[in-house]
Amino acid sequence: MNHLHFQIQDRHGVLTFDREGSSANIFDRDALVELSAKLDALSAHPELQGLLIRSAKPTIFIAGADLKALSSAQGSDLRDLIELGQATFQKLAKLPFPTVAAIHGACVGGGLELALACDWRVASDASATKIGLPETNLGILPAWGGTTRLPRLIGLPTALPLILGGKIMVAKAAKSKGIVDAVVPQENLEAYALTFFKRGKRRLPHRPLLHNGIVAPLIGKKARKALLEKTRGLYPGPEAALEVAIQSCHGPLEEGFKRERDAILQLAPRPETHQLMRLFLLQERAKKHRIVQAEPHKVGRCAVIGAGVMGAGIAYWLSARGHEVVLRDINDEAIAKGIRAIAKNYDEARNRRVFTPTETQRGLDRILPSAVPVPLDRCDLVIEAAVERLDIKKKVFADLAARTRPDTILATNTSALPVHELAEVVGNPERLVGLHFFNPVHRMQLVEVVRTPQTSDATLATAVAFVRSIGKLPVVVQDAPGFLVNRILMPYLVEAAKLFERGGDPKAIDDAMLDFGMPMGPLRLLDEVGLDVAAHVARTLAEAFPERMSVPALLDKLIAGGHLGRKSGSGFYSYEGHRTTPNPAALNLRTGNQAAPADTAALLARSMSDEARLCLNEHVADTADDIDLAMVLGTGYAPFRGGPLQYQIDQAMRPKATAQPSTPRSHESFTHATHRHS
Questions:
Q1: What pTM does this model have?
Q2: Which of 172, 285, 404, 516 supports an S-S bond with 353, CB 3.0-4.6 Å?
Q3: Model confidence pLDDT, tens digit, residues 207-237
Q4: What dihedral do alpha carbons 166, 170, 171, 172 form, nearest 10°?
Q5: How many structural domains comprise the chain?
Q6: Which residues are catalytic?
Q7: Full residue range of the structural domain in which residue 599 is found
């Protein structure tokens, strides 16, 4: 074991986490045993005036528990691991001298639980510093003291949203919540942290009027109501964390630790937990999995062609990640509208303390707008986000091919059009690739990287590396109709529209899929996407697969009547202020009076699973894991079900009498209930 280094400097101790052979500090059994031994050894130094805890890693303080080890531990092994962590952190809390965590980089999960066991916490203001307890997103709860300690530190009403939502915050947001005591520049971090030794051991605030057996349950009742609105009560992790936090914010710490341990022992074997852990590991794989052997090229300056919703969203995201971006559109009005959208995104991020005012201004300064042709020879990557018409895109790419360097990567953000048909206007089509972002860009993690038959390995490697470098997760797909996510999603949306057309109640149809776990019902989603956009994608797929896909006549009738969805004020629903009610015009277009069947959820879910199976058989994506991950990230497919292919497997293994889906609703921290699709 060689994960920790201890030294004495000027009458204080310094404990440095530096996991050997790894870029990250994580807690497994060996690391906890080593830490426990180091803390025992500190008793041999009664002269110490304090202990500073820091990390030697450049972007990570402590990234939490080793999830592979945690997910594989069962029964007594898991119990021992939880008790070891609790006992070790309690040793830290009981040291006779003040302890300070100097936090730079990711401090999440078990890393924050260790920091909470310290008296004081000082964090760097670097963008790499992220703080939070994400365990409920994995189906478990903070069980090394976090669920007990955080409410005692900042108060139950403040702590509950952070624990139940699994929120990860920047340092300044964590300070505003009271989790850290100071935020300073990285170069001043340790020097400033040392000044906290003068404050001595911390005395936690005493909140007898808030943390007692009468008020705490009342706070919990309100929190439970909000939680059930998001989860429908069938995501067990947040519910268990809520119960533990309510009961453990007062009374002996040890009783809280016991509740944490008992709760995680009950949660760990559940199938929901298994699938959430699996998806997390798939996301980690997507961050570093090598797709091809070619080495990626560095991408600096970029250009985005089209300043509409998608173009502006992409330009914002790239500039926020440090790239200079040429934003090009056909006139000043389009450019101005795009810049306003970008500025709004920056304002919202600044208000959430993601960016400082200075960082916001620098990000805006990296946007180089133009309504006239400009040189693009300095751009390493150009992303086209123009209107979804192949003839227009061909003209755009013919122009780009003539005005960029031969090695500039040319990418299209099309959501359904065949990328390979653009190759004929690009002189060297090996540099052509699809980069399909999802809307809203700043919230959706997934990017489909579309490989054409001509796309070179170097281009693919560069595109994948670029997507990762801007904080998105890539899934490589073949240049097939609809690519992956839209192809699987569209039969589901079309089938829902047909159920409505035959007489189904829109709320009953949508509620069935909310109960299944989707973040939004299919008819409401069609309205959010825009019925005209959905019909365009549906027609593209119907042309490719006429034997099993078609466009409901109802869609064309609604579009002809000006009912385009939320953007026009009505679609399947009417939108008046905050009120959403079934649209009478849509109801009048129904051709039958058949109620939605009792197995609506199973029927609609099967449409996605069947199409996903076809995509796997046709090698649209490499693996079933890629397909499941893409659907969860791109559509909010119920995370606890693991994806449409995993759901199909689970249903096939269940007895027929219990094969109907249960009624959980997706947890908001995994996706956004109002997200739109490009």
A1: 0.90
A2: 172
A3: 988 999 999 999 999 999 999 988 887 799 9
A4: -110
A5: 3
A6: 436
A7: 485-670
